Amino acid sequence: MSAALHYGATNGTDFSLTVLKARIALLATAIGGPDYTSEIEPPPYKLGDDCLACLKDLKRWFKLVDDQQKRWDVAMAVAEYRILTDDLLPILIDWENRCSLAAKLAKNNPEQGEFRNKAYYDKIAMNCLQLLVLMTWPLIITEQSSSNQITLYSELKKHQLIYKKAILSMENGKVLRAAIRLALGVIKIDRLSRTPRDNMVLKLVLNFFRNVIAIEPGEFTINTKRSMPSKGISSIDTLPPNVSMDDISLNTVISSFHKNKVFGLLLTLANSLSKEYDQDFINIPLLEIMFFLTKDVNQSLLFPQQPGRKPHHGPANANGKISTSNVVTSAGFELSKLLQKEHQMKKNVIKHTSARHSRFGGLLSIQTPDKNRLTVSGSQALVDENIALQKLDDSKKWNKRITQKRESVATEGLPNSLLNSQTGKAIFFTESNGKHFKKFINDFIDSGFNILLHSVTNCFTTEQDRMVTLEQVEYLLFFAWFINYQLLRCKMDSSSKLHQVSEALKEVSFILVSSLLRNAYDLKNWIVTHAGMIAFNELLNLVAYTKAGEGDSDDIEFIVSRLFSDERIQLLSNLPKIGSKHSLQFMKSCIELTHSVLKVLEQYSDDKTLVVEGKSRRRKKLNVSEDDISRLIEEENVDRDEALDILTSNFRGIEVNFQKVQSNYMTEPVVETYINFLQRFRELEDDSIKKVFSFFHRVFVQAKEQSLLFRFDLIILLREMLSSDGLNRMSRSRKYVSQFSDYFLTRLKKRLKKSPAWFVGLLFPPLHNSEVGFYQKYGEYSVLNNESLYASSISQFKPIPDEEALPPSVLQDMRYGILVSTLLDDGKAELLDQLLQHITHTLNVFKSWLSVNVNAGRETMNPPNEFFVLTGTLNNDPLFRDKDYRALLSLIGYSVPDKINEPCFLAGTIEIPDLTTSCELIKKYLSTPFETPNGLPSSSYLVRVRSRKENLLHGEQDGWEGNDHYDYTDPHIIPDDQEISEGDEAYFKDLDNNVSEKLKGVKLSRGIARSKKKEKKRGKKRAYRNNLATFDNEDGQQPHSLKERHSVFSKEFISDSEDDEDLMNPIFFENETYMRWLLDKNNGQLTEDRYAQFAKFAAERMANGGVTTGDYTNLFGGFVPSISDIGAAETSSFAPDKSLISLASHVASEMSAADADNNTELSDDDINSELKDNLGSPQLSDSYNDLQSDEDNRKVLRKRKLEDSEVDKEGEDEDEDEDEEAFLFSVKKSKVILDESDGDDE
Asked: What segments bear the compositional bias annotation Acidic residues (predicted)?
């Protein structure tokens, strides 16, 4: 006893596990067992006295240990004591036999009803089914799994395979009939009379069927960081003893389901889903059952072989031809593939083996120019020089970096076989099972597909944010598989119609598919992206087939226009760019999707036009009158909400330019994906190879981007494909390779003759320099038409809050300061010096002209225009390319050129005083730093719009042309200030913005805005978007670049520059007033020391709310004057405008009012600052007004504090009420859960 206690003290975990197993053993014994007292052989099963209580205890153990503690100890103990095979299955089969016998007797003798204690046995059967669901539930390993789960994963997987074999084989799967009988008991009840518990029974039965289908052998890979050693491990090692793949294959599942009428139950539930049943309980389980039944099935195997078409996959017969008619088992199929591989290996050995007279060896020695020798052994090198060179290449050591394929399957705990139907490892059936399965699929499509898809789509649309990865994949592959099947069915059987899958063409369905694809791509969830590409490709195939067939052309045109928004076209063109970093099947899906997209859009390239919804310029306020709404309701016969959606839509129709869309695919990453895919040509089907060369033809001939394909790896690949070891000479795809190869090499020879530089260019990637790249691509210099080449658009000023209250002189002063400071920050002082020289020269010319003409009596004549040309080391590029410099020229009054052949000049009509003011302001900000109100660089007040040249050459995605006139200063327009046309500008802007963060030791990723407030602890939560209100919202407003994607993840990362308190700080205007006063006092000149003192003075006032603590008597020549003293003194013609002083007080009062509205309590510093601003206002002229204002301020503050205290007290009361309500709600919720879980105890 003492030894046991010592063992338990030192090994607490092992001791608790031992106790747990002992409890499970006692329950297994008490449930029941074989009745050996009976004379029947084999002995029948006899229930224990406390069978029902033991089953309930087992359920509680599962919930207490496995569910709550993330352990699988109970499941492992139950498996070791064989409770499922020795107890649960015999109990359910015995119950099914009793019920079946009672039903037969009731038919013959209606007076004889149910068997004895039927209610008790029904409860036992229900508890057995619940335990079956728990024990067969799919096991998922993720990076959040506990070490206990990872340790027990492989063993539990093997036990589940034993469960699956026992369920399907014990008395021909009669357990499935027992589950159906439990479901029929609920179906007999009228829908209105069913309770939630009855609906849960239906869901339980469907989950049982789903679990049986989903059980598969364990995965070698546990997750991305932990993987089981796969070397030397075959699929047999994942199987338990006495269980083969045939015992648990889909063929066996279909056979058992057909015998026990499971397919009939599934069709009944799917057909009457929205009428007879509560679809919220059973629609998702039905979707999962259909998904697991079809995910490994290749649709083409369910249809007769097409005449003249050679199937790609299948076993080889004696003649070497491929056939599937003799395949009976999966083991036979594997054997046939091994025999075919052996046959190919024998052919290669015979081909490369030398004759018996030359088997004595050979040695080939090659001397290099540097007197070294390379030696190759083997007589084969004497026959073929290519073999010798290949052996030399194989002997070289190349430490190539191994890149892991970007697949998130293991991370999400999903099986690697999730996309098996797209590979060659498809499932084969016996002839009878194939017919049964095909009949079930046809009946499901005819009666239940549209109903189930509609129900599931509506469910996922409203709860898209809560969809887990497995649910997204299940929906997308279910969607794609049945569309593909119906297309094949329609091609084979003319009586089949596409309206049987018409729900797939409904707007809600393809909006959800598109949204899942977009979100998965943005979040880099690659398995969902892969499934989304498959679904979208099948959707395009369905649209194309419908358009070519009996479909209504108007409806199809509408669907196509909704499928291809401008943002979605951009997404589809980005997908093949990342394909080369993923698996072979991912690249195949990218290529098939690209082929379908270009094929559909090419139909609109000649005579037809496709109008899609493109993003228009967003407006803050749309003036929609009631008359417009009423008129639209009457004309279009729509309701009020739909009319408002139409009138306030942010989108407009634009025409799709196919050449522009095709050019989006003509990039190096896309070509890289195609070449990487083609390098696996031995594993590809003929159709896939044909699609690759179809795209190469587009690149080479239609788009004339030949330089993209002039690469050595493609030349070597074509040579390898056409060699004797490459494609089979009888292959249908060989002719495509041969034809393209001939044309490709012919064009390459001509290019090498015309441009010998390509002998070197073939060795390296293409150059992206504009001039060199153009010459490399086309072999000629870039000649652009100067008449049609537009200059860059000028920078625009961001709208400043309350700028209407600012005087024009102050606003003009700020704009000059912004532009001059921005140019100085960018190191463009030389441009400003030349501009200042030209303005000074122009002023002298204009004044001389004016004096001469006044004396001559011709004062009404204007002087000639003064043309501006940059001299010295500068050319005229800044006049056409520098957006900020052009904005400054426009602000001064220059005629800024729109095209590069137009001149830049100052018109003679400009007023000399205005030009003089501009000259003085430029001089001022060349010598005095400009302080921005928001504390950010001056460029933060500018919007760099897209350049006109870029608009002209590449076009706008939203349909806006670059040479359109567009007013960016319109207050109703929200400019796209995140759009920067030059990549270098964005790079250096990031370098500049990161300096302050680097000085603080803060590391920040590119594209993430930094907060100017106190540092906050940033969370890792990511706000997923659900934009399904309208079709384009979910795609149309997604950012492209990494920088924009970062900026929308969290409001916490968005800059706080929109706060009025920072933008309109009154201290800034007061400092400006002090600077004007000092310049006026010192005749416009300040020494460098005084400039430094004033900078310190201004920074101290900004930091302390207008209060200074230092000594500045040397700066001001005495005491520091107050704002009111400066306002009263008007001794200079250049004195500051009084509107600045009144504006400071106005802004301070506005801030105080805003604080009062927000019920915020002011600090002592805020109170002092507010009193000082009000006392310093020039509008309070005498001491009485000063005292009265002081008293009023005290009353207002006292009243505000009282209101704040009352609001705080009310807030506390509300918080207490909410806490109490939340507590009561949680109690009620837990009670409901207990009632549902233990309802069977009654």
From this structure: 1205-1222
pLDDT at 1113: 80
| Lowest mean per-residue pLDDT among 430-444, 449-463, 770-784, 1040-1054 | 1040-1054
What beta strand segments (E) does 514-668 contain?
611-615, 651-655
Note whether 771 and 805 are same-domain residues: no
CA distance 1193 to 1191: 5
Pairing relationship of beta strands 45-47 and 363-367 according to DSSP bridges: unpaired
Do 1129 and 1195 share a domain, yes or no? no
1176 lies in the same domain as 1190: no
Q: Are residues 1158 and 1187 in the same domain?
A: no
Closest CA to 422 of 238, 597, 245, 587: 587
Instruction: Tell me which residue range forms the domain holding 834.
Output: 786-981
Residues 6+ apart with CB under 8 A from 149: 70, 71, 72, 141
d(CA 734, CA 813): 73
**968 touches 815 (CB < 8 A):** no
Residue 947 lies in a domain: yes
H or E element in which residue 736 lies: helix 734-754
Q: What is the distance between the alpha carbons of residues 883 and 980, in angstroms, rounded to a whole number?
A: 11
Same domain, 1212 and 1238: yes
Asked if 1116 and 1164 sit in the same domain, the reply is yes
Q: Residues 313, 426: contact at Cβ < 8 Å? A: yes
958, 981, 1004 — which closes off a domain?
981
Instruction: Report DSSP letters for 929-985, one per residue.
Output: PPPPTTSS-GGGGEE-PPPHHHHHHH--TTS--TTS---TT-TTB---TT--S-HHH
What are the pLDDT digits (tens) for 268-290?
999 988 888 888 899 999 999 99
Count other Cβ atoms within 10 Å, centred on residue 539: 22
Q: For 72, what's the count of Cα atoms within 13 Å in the CB-facing half-sphere?
A: 27
The Cα–Cα gap between 1167 and 1143 comes to 19
**CA separation for the pair 245, 329 (Å, rounded):** 9
H helices of 384-506, in order, are: 385-395, 431-447, 449-462, 469-492
Confidence of residue 42 (pLDDT cuts 50, 70, 90): confident
Can you list the positions of beta strands (E) in 1087-1202? none
Residue 639 domain flag? yes
